[in-house]
Amino acid sequence: MKLQEYQSKILFTMYGIPVPNGRIAESINEVKQISEELGGRVVIKAQVLSGGRGKAGGVRIAKTIDEAEEYAGQILGKEINGLPVRKVLVDEMVSINKEIYLSIANDRISQKPVLMASSFGGMDIEEVSHSNPEKIVKRVIDPLLGLRDYQLRDVAINIDLDRAYWQDFSTIINQLWKVYVDCDASLVEINPLVITSEKRLLALDAKIVLDDNALFRHPNLSDFRDINAEPPTEIQGRKIGVSFIKMDGNIGCLVNGAGLAMATMDIIKELGGEAANFLDIGGGANSKKVEDSLRLILSDEKVKAILINVFGGITRCDEVAKGILSAFNEIKTKIPIVVRLVGTNDEEGLRLLQGSDLIPAKSLREAAEIAVRLAGEVIS
Ligand code: GDP
Ligand code: MN
After folding, report:
1. To test the ligand 1 pocket, which listed residue (4, 12, 43, 127) has its Cβ within 8 A of the most ligand atoms?
2. Distance from the CA of 59 to the center of ligand 1, in angstroms?
3. Rounded-to-integer distance, Cα 207 and Cα 188, Å
4. Residue 6 a catalytic site member
5. Quick check: is 330 catalytic?
6. What string of pLDDT tens digits covers the 380 residues of the chain?
7. Domains within the chain, CATH numbers bracketed
C-alpha cells in the first residue's frame, strides 16, 4: 500500500524528520486560507499515488496567494498521471541550494534492506540511475545489526556532503530507518532531501510504501488507505476478488495463481509482446469471476488479445472451461481469446471449448505465441 505524500510527511514528523510547514486542502478556498497562513509563497502539490508529479504539472510554485488559488484550480479535480486529484498539499515555499536523493528499500539481490543516496536528487533521479548508476551510492543494511554509524559516514563522504551537514544527515537517515522498520515498509524515500538557503536539511517530498502482508500489525496505518486515490481498475479488481495491476501493453492476461501470472507475463515479453495487466484470479475460478475479470480486462481499450492461462490442480479444467464459455457467451467480444488449460480434466476442458471462437493452445509457449501474433497483427 502506497501512502500519499502528506500521509508520509505525518509519519516523518512523528519520527522527527524535518518537513516544510504545510497542510492538506480539498478546495480552492482552503488553499487560499492555508496560503495566507503560510505567508503567500507556497507550493501546491497534487496528492496522487504516482511519482513524477513535478514533470506532469502536479507541483506548482506560487509566489502570491492569487497564484496559489490559480494553480489549485488547475490541479484540483483534474488528472495527474491518469489519477484524479482530490487533495493538494499546500507547503510553504523553500529556497533550495541542493537536492539530495535518499531512500531505504528492499533489495531483491542481497535480500536485505539497502540504503541509497545521491547528490543528484530531484526530478531526474530515474535518468541518473540509467545513465550514471555510479552516482547513486548503495549500501546494504544488515537487518540484525541495523544501520551502522560508519555506513552513514561512508555514504555522506561518497555523495560529497559538506561536513557541516553530517550530523543532521545521520539523524535523518537513522529516523528514516526507524520508520522503515517500525512500519514494515518496503520503501521509504525522500526525493528531494534539500539543503535550504538557510542551510537546513529538509524532506521536501516523502514516499512510503507499506508491505500489505504486514498491515494487520498496523491498524492505525491501514486507516490511511484512500480508496478513491487508487487506480479505478485496481479498485474494481479488489471488488470482484482478484489481484489486478494494470500495465501498458495490449495483451490481457487472466491466470490462476500469482506465480503463473508472472510467468505468463514473462513469456509474453520474451516473445516480443507486452502484457496489458497482471491478473490473478485465484483458485476455483468460477464463471462469474471469469466473466468479471474478462470485463475488467476489456475495459482497457488498448487490449487487442487475451491470454487465459489456467493450471488445474484442485481447480478442474472442465469447470474453468465452462466458466470461460459462459462468460464469453455473455460478453460477446471480438477480441481474440487464447486459452491454455493444463492439469486436472484438461482434455475434457479443451473438448468443451471446441466449436467456440476461443482459440485453444496446448502449451503456454504456443498460447503466448498466438496471443503475441494476434495482438501484433492489429497494430500493423
Ligand atoms: P515529484 O515530482 O512527484 O517527485 O514531486 P516533488 O515533491 O519531488 O517535487 C518536484 C520538484 O519540485 C522537486 O524536485 C523540487 O525541485 C520542486 N519543489 C518542490 N517543492 C519546492 C519548494 O518548496 N521550493 C522549490 N524551489 N522547489 C520545490
Ligand atoms: Mn519527488
Report:
1. 43
2. 7
3. 6
4. no
5. no
6. 999 999 999 999 999 999 999 999 999 999 999 999 999 999 999 999 999 999 999 999 999 999 999 999 999 999 999 899 999 999 999 999 999 999 999 999 999 999 999 999 999 999 999 999 999 999 999 999 999 999 999 999 999 999 999 999 999 999 999 999 999 999 999 999 999 999 999 999 999 999 989 999 998 888 888 766 777 888 889 889 899 999 989 999 999 999 999 999 999 999 999 999 999 998 766 778 888 999 999 999 999 999 999 998 887 888 888 888 888 888 888 999 999 999 999 999 999 999 899 999 989 999 999 999 999 875 44
7. 21-92 (3.30.1490.20), 96-222 (3.30.470.20), 231-374 (3.40.50.261)
Rounded-to-integer distance, Cα 285 and Cα 279, Å: 12
- What is the DSSP track for 224-236? T--GGGS-HHHHH
Quick check: CB of 121 below 6 Å from ligand 1? no
- Ligand 1 atom with the smallest distance to the CA of 92 is 23
Residue 58 Cα to ligand 1 midpoint, Å, equals: 10
Among 189, 291, 319, 369, the one annotated catalytic = 189
pTM above 0.70, yes or no: yes
49, 61, 98, 204, best to mutate for ligand 1 pocket (most atoms within 8 Å of CB): 204
The one catalytic residue in 101, 180, 291, 369 is 101
* Residue 117 zone, left/alpha/beta (φ > 0; ψ -120 to 50; rest): beta
Provide the grid cell at 13. Answer: 514528523
CA distance 193 to 121: 8
Task: Classify residue 132 as exposed, middle or buried by CB count within 10 Å of its CB (0-12, 13-18, 19+).
Answer: exposed
Residue type, 228: N
